[in-house]
Write a structure and sequence with these properties.
The structure is a homotetramer of 375-residue chains.
Chain A (H helix, E strand, L loop, with lengths): L9 H11 L14 H10 L11 H9 L7 E4 L6 H10 L3 E4 L7 H13 L4 E3 L7 H11 L6 E9 L12 H6 L2 H4 L4 H17 L3 E9 L10 E8 L4 E7 L8 E8 L2 E6 L5 E6 L4 E5 L7 H4 L12 H16 L10 H19 L5 E2 L12
Parallel strand pairs in A: 1-2, 2-3, 4-7
Antiparallel strand pairs in A: 4-8, 5-6, 5-12, 6-7, 8-9, 9-10, 10-11
Chain lengths: 375, 375, 375, 375
């Protein structure tokens, strides 16, 4: 594990998730760039002192000579450190689990993609929400044509936790609003990219163009704290994306609504165990997380009978378990990976460019000619 | 009453609304352009045969000489007939109740505004949703600063009833998708303008600029059946507006969310008796329609104790009752009127222009210079 | 109208309900036992002074000789005055609309039943909630066997408004907690009987036996302010009934859940436009108030398209409109009437007797032998 | 671990729960009475073959001589095996984690209590729902007097999974409906006792008396599949308890509502991350699972920020983690233990006796004199 030392949020989540199914064991790490904090974190996590390394290079070198060497590298640092660590990991042939956004730029993302193509290591980008069974079921419903042609895709990810200027004590907030660590995107990169990935994941369609407006509500903040965008999907659907981290009263409201010609779907992350199917001229149905009501593939992401709530950790653990399966030869093509990372970075860059250009429709693949009337 | 003959939807609603409080009586009308249907409608509505007129001019002339002449004209025709009828009514000094959208063009709206300024008649534009007590309460909460400076305004109005190409039997659908009767805007003019008015009504702020994308999902339809737009309010808030009439499973989902620096509000028309107040870092509150929990002004729109649901008809009746009060000298400045109509037509025209211009930010007041970077 | 003078709650509701469809006109009344309040109420209600009577006898006598005499008597007084007024009305051949509970005792109810059998007048007991379309639809679903044999019936009616000892200013509260006016039952008679009627109405089954526990939470109150009871239906279903008027935070939470062998139903009065159908091993469905999704009979109680909320007043008006149809020969057998009143009074007396007897199972028809093991 | 072999449901849940926080390790077990299934289960669970024992006696004997002996015994068998295993474990000085209902009879429960008093081992009864942070917060709100004196306690636990006669393949269903394995109570013992424990846990009050009605809806079933009961708490509150396992459409609907003189609380297990506080004459509040909004004690049961759902496994893991703390000297007095088990068995026996006696109010402590008028 790289990052995730004392006080880190997402590192602790990764550890719970990997423990849940007994498929991973935490053996080594670079938990902090501060030596004492690094050592202390290792101690607390029952990692042997000699496997607590000063940096990623040392870790790879040190592990390479061990018989019980690590097989996978988990990267849970702030954004600016993702690229180098992932690249080194892939080059060393390790499997890599990496937090989003994958890199700081689309160019870096492309380089990582190339490295992954040359590596024996598998790559998992932890877009957590793809691990929810009802999201996977939604994806299958769309793929099977239950909605017909898609018309609208409305995705939102709204939080309150950056509603006021943070003090320096809040480590989570500090790096996320610091361009040198978070990159050029604030809210857009932290959660907007989750919303984007979720929309692509469930629709099975790529976003072709975006018209975006970034804004910063909190005085003195260097990066955007909200983004509002219109989207065009390659399949023709029109979409809207709203992400904000300065919205009082919204805890973690990631919601997705998909409108098709035959039916619509609605899902909200805060109540992840239900999915609404809204057929044309018929009663809406509350689909629940039941292994007897989904495909075998989706049922693998279900641990408990319906009515026994599963949550964020189980969703995360589903990614880890499926990644273990994937690595062991039981291919799990749905897992978020390099391609999601490249798309996410392109989306971030296109949204920033569009916003800078007064909302001009901007193609994600950089081909200007594809921008056009109403995207 | 002009329009509202047999089989009409909104005319029947107007009649229930005006009866509820015993402040209006239906005395005369032009219920249909088809003579037999006109006569038959009058009979069913207990309107005396001699007060069933062939057209508005005849009605005004016929009533003018009666001792028990009508005092108000209610216009519930398809859109293209609003302007002439309203203009004649105002010129005759009658009070006018008119359905939205007020006219076919902003230019007509301006002319009507001028006519209203010269007339002794009062003018009510039936933006129904302003009649809901919790909407009025929301408006007061914003005005009193309970939310602080506004950041985001998300408004949606989504329906399913035009999801497929309608057959000719559906009179409601037929004229709404016919440009000669509905005007240049389909969904945008039918319900988009409701969403727009509601957002302005509750925020107390005007929309300065819009970047819109209209689309038509149903093949063969001449007008838009959905619109997605980014908004900029004069007070600086950024907004999004989504209206669609081709979204399966959505019955009449008008929702409004307002995000301020101190708290957010959320309201959904399908559950109109509750309003969510979501303060920063504190539990969300479910405000209910209780006369002891709102101002005296809002309490006038409440008929029943909390927990006894009021609905669409009561909301409509609130407009009528307040209009009666207004006409009788008890001014009800909040009532939607000419100004709302002018703004609505400007919004429609700006949205159409923006969409035609590839989403370029377009000022509602026609002043091009106000369009600019990100609106 | 008898009762319903200035400041009265339910009288005003009746008047809105009867106006809504233009099938009734308020012509005469005894609005208060206080002469000045009586006269003043008549004036406000546009009732001619000479048709404002001192008591029911005078009203019946006075109207009898008029050409434009009233046809129906509406009784909205406190409970203790229901019986005499209804009896006089029926004897005079008038149609009678009466508030619940119908009388003070089951014996009175039986006498009224006998009088109704001899009268040309029709009788409507205003159990409001039977007027909701989704309740009527639920009743049809049960009758058609969509649920299979019924297993459980859970009904609740919970309010907060009598949570503390009321001061004398609250006229509504005062008589409801005064045994000389309300009768022997407090909460049980005021809302418990609504819950009871609703359960019988929707299931189409009579309650055979009850085991009840009444209690009084507010010190100094002479009557019960809550009741908890187990029920046995004649068809074998077991039920529970909870009514309370001293439950903080509950506005008017009347809810009904019916469990059958094939499916369950759930409905809540505060969201009356939806009904949940919960089939075995299949997604729950949100049925909404749509005239195209219910029988023709139920569709008559629907005024607006789905998604346009209807509420308490519309439900009430449905009773009035159907009563007008019934009186005019278009029989509406479902309307709550004398039989509901008799059953309600038997339930009240059985519940009081059971509670006094330590919860002994008590038959509603007074046949002791039917009480037995677990009812 | 005793029980929990291949195909078992709750055993797998226990294992996920104990792994989540890295405080327990599964080292030995008696996973099945069938030798091959026992061995196979051990293999799958990475338990050394020599630590896979034939029965509990062998396990205790075998482990006693090991240096790395187990410290705790986890009992996840059908009910009839709980008592012996728990007794042996306690006698051997082991910590014991036991599923509910604790034993088959209250007498056994008392014997276990005596054994626990003499043992150095700690005892955890896995009433899962006590592990939910919002339940713990509710308990503190009641204890701090935020609700005032309690008036009503409504608790329900309703499932559909035994709605039809099960076939023999369903191992979960088979033993639960077999009196020789489940004991004298079916639904009552399987989930009714959870509802009972939850009500006592949150109110901090013991149930003094019960008037119950058990029933069996599914033909051929030997035990009850539903129970409806009235309760009296020692503090005076009146309550109702409904449990059913034959209710179509109910997945795992455990709900608790507590009505106090100042406010009410409402919680539903299927949405465990929110708790409704309903004050008198004020807006209801949606309390969410936030560590900054609860006491330090409750915050220990929270793993993620608000809006990131936690569920059933996390709740279960909270019991395990707190039990580890408790065992290591950091007393966690709130943990469900022997006393809950004794109370639960008394409740089961009192409910059965009451139902057999036609619903007579029955004291839980066996003191007949305490039964009385309305309990």
């Amino acid at each position: 594990m790289v990052g995730g030392g004392q006080g880190a949020f997402i590192g602790a989540v990764h550890r719970m998730a990997l423990r849940l199914d007994d498929r991973f064991e935490l053996l080594a790490g670079v938990f902090s760039s501060q030596p004492e904090r690094n050592r202390q974190s290792a101690r607390e996590l029952h990692v042997a002192p000699e496997r607590c390394y000063a940096d990623v290079a040392a870790l790879i070198e040190g592990e390479a000579v061990r018989e019980d060497a690590i097989e996978a590298l988990i990267i849970v640092t702030p954004n600016h450190l993702h690229f180098d660590a992932a690249l080194e990991g892939l080059k060393a042939g390790l499997h890599v689990v990496c937090e989003k956004p994958m890199t700081l730029t689309a160019a870096e993302a492309e380089r990582l993609k190339a490295a992954a193509a040359r590596s024996a290591g598998h790559f998992l980008l932890t877009h957590t929400y793809a691990g929810y069974p009802m999201i996977q079921h939604a994806r299958e419903l769309v793929a099977k044509g239950e909605l017909g042609a898609l018309r609208h895709v409305q995705v939102e990810y709204v939080q309150e936790w950056l509603s006021v200027a943070q003090n320096d004590d809040n480590r989570q907030a500090a790096w996320r609003t610091d361009p040198t660590k978070a990159g050029a995107a604030g809210c857009l990169g932290d959660i907007g990219v989750h919303a984007f990935q979720l929309a692509q994941f469930v629709t099975g369609q790529k976003v072709a163009r975006v018209s975006a407006s970034l804004s910063t509500a909190v005085a003195g903040r260097a990066l955007d704290d909200s983004v509002q965008a219109l989207l065009r999907f390659q399949g023709g659907a029109s979409g809207m994306l709203w992400a904000s981290q300065c919205a009082p009263g919204f805890e973690n409201e990631l919601t997705l609504r998909i409108v098709g010609e035959k039916a619509s779907l609605s899902w909200a992350q805060e109540h992840p165990n239900e999915l609404w199917l809204k057929p044309l001229d018929a009663p809406s149905q509350r689909l629940t997380r039941r292994s007897d009501a989904v495909s075998e593939a989706v049922a693998r992401s279900i641990r408990l009978p319906g009515g026994h709530p599963e949550g964020y950790i189980e969703s995360f653990a589903n990614l880890y378990r499926a990644f273990a399966d994937d690595v062991q030869g039981d291919g799990q093509a749905w897992l978020p990976g390099i391609e999601d990372g490249v798309d996410g970075m392109r989306f971030i860059e296109a949204a920033i460019a569009s916003s800078a250009g007064d909302g001009v429709w901007t193609a994600l693949d950089g081909d200007e000619r594809k921008g056009g009337r109403n995207g």
